[in-house]
Design a protein that fits this description.
633 residues, 12 strands, cell outer membrane, 37% helix, mainly alpha
Length: 633
């Protein structure tokens, strides 16, 4: 029986078709032809193969399978860990332990049981054989082909983002392929981008054929790809390709194949931003036609005050299942965000301590400082906000948002924007859930704080944003509502468009998209906020100033969604941002004064240009001497 959200049991059955494929690097020669013939004997078997192609998607909503959660500086975790993890790979990357002998999070060869090259191979097999299925209706065949072209493009994109220039595997090699044919070369950045976007165009083509505009069969097809998803991912690819890492970057000028082919074009090309802008606009227009809208919270059970309404606008744009803003959500294994939520959520109730709530996904102090003041400008720019005394204690009064009256906490936590209180929690803050409003008390030995060698926040902060308000618990049970992980939502697309507009002379229009996101988050427009409160009131009027605003707006709006890890790289700001120390509060203390002291936790190191890309495992370079290693590895 099919599951409700496309987590179909047939995935595991069909995956068994490929358990014998273990030749190693780019195993693209099909050695299981009899099995393949059986797989396309009829519609039922072919559908299993389609779902197998989907099964290769990385589980991006899992905290140990997406480097964006713990591989950078957005969340930190106590160390060493002896339990409460699936893989240590992302934490090793954050601590500078990446290596070329046995790379962490090695999706090239296989990580979490997934080699993306094997996924591409499965897609090619499907595309080469699906027309043999005798009982498949043409309209359904065309849709399946479009879905698999999308997946093939997405797997190439995922590898490209990790490794930079990669081989293009458009077709599987025949069984008779010579050793020289198997030893493929990496392709130039621009060629890879053109190939991925061409596949996405093919996937999204057609008015009433191929991919649907939206999913209509909610009981069986949620999580499958739509035309809007294809165009939105294309927009993301092109914005990345236009960004400084890939556009006008001289750091990789000497990166060539052994046949002399140059892999990075060091010349800046303004037309890349134009292509990105056009792709974003096309995706936004189609999203509007499909009814995709910025999410606004509408409680059906009870009424909430204005501050809570705004908070839930922000939280449920991510956590409400299949909400109006979602463009493409992953539903891996039917429980795509269970572990993410349990990693993030602290103990909320002193009378119901539940050991499944781990609280380990801890934002550092720098992330708390990233959010705006209540006036919608950076804390260091707000003329009315006491930046100099942000680490001094203040007493919480009834008028203070998101905190417990009578508590003491640092000035950093006062008069902040709604996204700060929606996204993060800390000692003295409140945590709104459907069943009640909880208080966070996390000094030493308090119920939300450190009491043992695990299940606590090393920084004193908690990632509230990614925990569904429907999570329920007792001492002995835990029920979570595992929402689909939002690979792409509309505000993300708006921010990509604003970025492309600003780089192509469209700053005024860029502001309209930023301001829609800010309005949903309870903030005034960029123009009003900067003109009235900022020490740099005309910052938004220049391309460079608005670029900085867009980047900070993106970092805030997309916080804890795995975006920052990649954004810092494509913007080429990673060396400046990631070579700064990780700080938190003194969680081993029990008094207000002692707890609220800034303490050093770790000195991250980002070595440029080496750390912009993953290393290719050394074994692969020996097997295929035509492969060139990434610089620095």
């Amino acid at each position: 029986m099919r599951s409700r959200h496309f987590t179909i049991g047939l995935l595991c059955m069909a995956a068994a078709l490929f358990t014998s494929c273990k030749k190693g690097y780019l195993d693209i020669v099909p050695d299981n032809v009899p099995t393949i013939d059986y797989a396309f004997a009829n519609r039922v078997e072919a559908e299993k193969y389609l779902f197998t192609c989907y099964a290769y998607l990385p589980k991006e909503g899992h905290p140990d399978k997406n480097p964006g959660f713990s591989g950078g500086d957005e969340a930190w975790t106590y160390w060493p860990m002896i339990e409460d993890y699936f893989y240590l790979d992302p934490y090793n990357i954050a601590r500078g332990y990446q290596n070329s002998a046995n790379p962490n999070m090695n999706y090239w060869d296989g990580y979490d049981g997934k080699s993306l090259w094997q996924g591409i191979r499965a897609c090619n097999i499907f595309l080469e054989n699906v027309r043999k299925v005798i009982d498949l209706q043409p309209y359904e065949r065309d849709r399946w082909i479009a879905e698999v072209k999308f997946l093939k493009a997405y797997f190439h994109w995922y590898l490209f983002r990790m490794y930079g220039p990669i081989p293009i595997v458009d077709k599987n090699l025949p069984i008779t392929a010579s050793p020289d044919e198997v030893r493929v070369f990496r392709q130039p950045v621009d060629s890879v981008v053109n190939y991925i976007t061409s596949l996405l165009d093919e996937s999204a083509a057609g008015e009433n054929t191929g991919l649907p505009l939206s999913i209509t069969s909610s009981t069986t097809e949620l999580g499958r790809v739509t035309k809007v998803a294809a165009l939105a991912i294309k927009a993301r690819v092109l914005v990345t390709a236009a960004s400084p890492l890939f556009n006008g970057n001289s750091d990789f000028t000497g990166m060539k194949n052994k046949n002399g082919q140059v892999l990075f074009n060091p010349q800046y090309d303004a037309s890349k931003w134009t292509k990105a802008r056009e792709a974003c606009k096309k995706a936004i227009d189609l999203a509007n036609a499909a009814g995709v809208r910025l999410y606004h919270f509408s409680p059906s059970i009870f009424q909430v005050d204005h501050a809570t309404q705004i908070e839930m606008n922000i939280r449920n744009a991510v956590c409400e299942k299949w909400n109006s803003e979602l463009i493409w959500g992953l539903t891996s294994d039917g429980d795509p965000t269970y572990w993410l939520q349990t990693y993030a959520c602290p103990q909320l109730d002193p009378n119901a301590i539940n050991l499944s709530l781990k609280a380990k996904l801890a934002p550092p102090l720098k992330i708390a400082e990233m959010f705006y003041t209540q006036h919608g400008v950076p804390i260091e720019e707000d003329k009315t906000w006491d930046y100099a005394n942000r680490y001094k204690l203040r007493n919480v009064t009834a008028k203070d948002t998101g905190m417990q009256e009578g508590y003491s906490t640092v000035g950093l936590h006062f008069e902040r924007e709604p996204r700060f209180y929606a996204d993060m929690a800390f000692d003295g803050s409140k945590w709104f859930m459907k069943n009640k409003n909880y208080n966070i008390q996390s000094k030493l030995e308090q119920y939300s704080g450190k009491k043992q060698t695990r299940l606590y926040s090393i920084t004193g902060y908690y990632t509230k944003k990614i925990v569904s308000w429907n999570l329920n618990f007792t001492t002995s049970s835990l029920q979570t509502e595992s929402y689909p992980w939002p690979v792409m939502r509309l505000s993300d697309l708006y921010l990509l468009y604003a970025e492309a507009l600003n780089e192509t002379g469209g700053s005024t229009e860029a502001l309209t998209y930023l301001n829609q996101i800010r309005e949903r988050a309870g903030l005034q427009s960029v123009e009003t906020s900067w003109s009235t409160y900022s020490s740099n009131p005309t910052k938004y009027a220049s391309v460079s100033g608005l670029r900085d605003i867009i980047r900070q707006e993106r970092s805030i709006e997309m916080a804890f969604e795995g975006s920052r890890f990649w954004d810092l790289r494509r913007w080429k700001t990673a060396p400046q941002v990631l070579n700064s120390p990780i700080y938190g509060w003194d969680i081993l203390q029990s008094t207000y004064e002692d707890y609220n002291r800034k303490v050093f936790l770790y000195n991250m190191q980002f070595i440029a240009p080496r750390d912009y890309f993953w290393p290719i495992r050394e074994d692969n370079l020996q097997i295929n001497p035509n492969l060139q290693q990434n610089p620095g590895w």
